[in-house]
Amino acid sequence: MSSASSRPQLLEQRLALGTYLEELLSEGVVTAGTTAVGARAQPSQTGTSDSVASPAARSPAPVPAQGPIQVRVFEVAGLTLAVPLSRVKDVVTSQPNLLPPSEPVPLLLGLLSSPAGESRVVDTARLILPHDRGMRPGVSPGPQAGQYLVLDAGHWALACNRIGDVIELQHSDVSWRTAAGKRPWLAGTVLKQMCALLDIDALIGLLAEKVA
Questions:
Q1: In which domain, by residue range, is 151 found?
Q2: Would you say 76 and 129 are in contact if contact means Cβ atoms under 8 Å apart?
């Protein structure tokens, strides 16, 4: 495919990702710094077990207590995401070869061996991005990601295209999701950085449901 013919596709993909980000910014959130009725204003638990309740049965994550939060920013297929730094066990940027999984699973790219141990690598793009938002069916940028965020006890790692800096967010910087939605992995959105903040407990629960 020539560069000239690929430009319309790239533009279309960027527009689709922009639309998807706008959806994330408006889905089930309350105004930054406020608490919805019924939301528990206390920090969520940060357990490391994979045996998390099914996202469909989970209540919306409580809005964390007031205070700064450090997050690691990363990119997946053109979308900027963030994960609480306290939930990151290791950062792998050396593009190691992945071991094939014992059984092929669409959401898994392989097994990653790192100082954190052996982790199942998630095709983050396939998990986060719907096929009608910049991804053609059956095509995922996951295998070309090459960088990985190892979560919690090390059982899971997120494939990333680029791992960025650690930044500090104030509680009021985040529009926290306090209503159940179709994206249980979404904790909230950060307008200033134009990124989505991941709910790691819900994400691990979703993976346990889809992969186990």
A1: 3-31+48-211
A2: yes
Over range 16-41, report the average pLDDT: 50
What does the block give as tokens for 120? 């199942």
Q: Is residue 21 part of a domain?
A: yes
**Is 119 part of a structural domain of the chain?**
yes
Q: Pairing mode, if any, of strands 88-92 and 156-160?
A: unpaired
SS3 assignment, position 87: helix
Within a domain: 202: yes
97 has pLDDT over 90: no
Which amino acid, 9? Q
Q: Which of 61-70, 74-83, 164-173, 183-192 is the least confident region?
A: 61-70
**Widest Cα–Cα separation across the chain:** 55
**Residue 124, phi then psi, degrees to nearest 5:** -60, -40
Specify the pTM. 0.72
| Number of structural domains found in the chain | 1
